[in-house]
């Protein structure tokens, strides 16, 4: 018996019959088997179509009758192939719908389990006790904040000094340092000689002294020459 015959005759497990219908998993398995069977049928028909088309080309005009028969078979195979395409589309749509329904069922079931678990957890909880507990937590947090503020506050002896007096003392020290610096400053003395009127021109006194030195040196040289001449003449 083929898979399609089993599917349409309601072949299945005794458990599914006893429940009055197949489970979603069983139905999805059947649909996938049918899709696989039809896909193989498609491949077979495509092969036959190619074979009949090749036969029609081979006979051609030499054997018109055989060529026409081949083309007729090709048309029948193409019609069956088109029907299978439509059937596969319908099965695919049905399978996707069943998968979505099964998924939604599982989601709702799990949400129901979670709701029951939350209910069981909340059975041992008293709202009044929770309010009292939150109030105690808030009070302890306030106490902890007060202790932290007390520890981090500045010591009392820090505020014993007057800041205005300290600033006045500081200004007095700065003034003393300024006065001491003014006393240590020495101004340069004023030069006694006048500066030259033009850059590069020497004073008159320097020119006279240089001229006198040159004249004395020349006179001494002349005297040496006269002595040498007198010694040579004698």
Report on the structure:
With 234 residues, the chain is mostly helical. Among the domains are: 103 residues, ESAT-6-like (Helix Hairpins), CATH 1.10.287.1060; 58 residues, no CATH class. 78% of the residues lie in helices and 0% in strands. Helix 3 packs antiparallel against helix 4. It is flat, with a radius of gyration of 63 Å. About 4% of the residues have low confidence.
What's the helix-strand series? HHHHHHH
Give the CA-based shape.
flat
Distance N terminus to C terminus?
173 Å
Beta content comes to: under 5%
Number of strands: 0
List the helices and strands and how they pair.
Elements: H1 3-8, H2 14-18, H3 24-59, H4 64-122, H5 127-152, H6 163-183, H7 204-233
């Amino acid at each position: 018996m083929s898979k399609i015959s089993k599917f349409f005759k309601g072949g299945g497990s005794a458990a599914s019959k006893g429940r009055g219908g197949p489970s979603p998993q069983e139905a999805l398995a059947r649909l996938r088997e049918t899709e696989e069977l039809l896909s193989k049928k498609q491949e077979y028909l495509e092969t036959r179509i190619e074979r009949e088309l090749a036969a029609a080309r081979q006979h051609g005009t030499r054997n018109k009758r055989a060529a026409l028969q081949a083309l007729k078979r090709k048309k029948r195979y193409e019609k069956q192939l088109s029907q299978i395409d439509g059937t596969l589309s319908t099965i695919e749509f049905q399978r996707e719908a069943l998968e979505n329904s099964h998924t939604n069922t599982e989601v709702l079931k799990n949400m129901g389990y979670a709701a029951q678990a939350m209910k069981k957890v909340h059975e041992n909880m008293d709202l009044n006790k929770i309010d009292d507990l939150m109030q105690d937590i808030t009070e302890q947090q306030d106490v902890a904040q007060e202790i932290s503020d007390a520890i981090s506050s500045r010591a009392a002896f820090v505020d014993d000094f007057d800041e205005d007096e300290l600033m006045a003392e500081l200004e007095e020290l700065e003034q003393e340092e300024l006065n001491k610096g003014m006393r240590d400053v020495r101004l340069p003395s004023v030069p006694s000689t006048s500066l030259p009127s033009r850059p590069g021109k020497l004073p008159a006194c320097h020119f006279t002294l240089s001229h006198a030195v040159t004249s004395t040196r020349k006179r001494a040289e002349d005297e040496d020459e006269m002595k040498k001449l007198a010694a040579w003449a004698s």
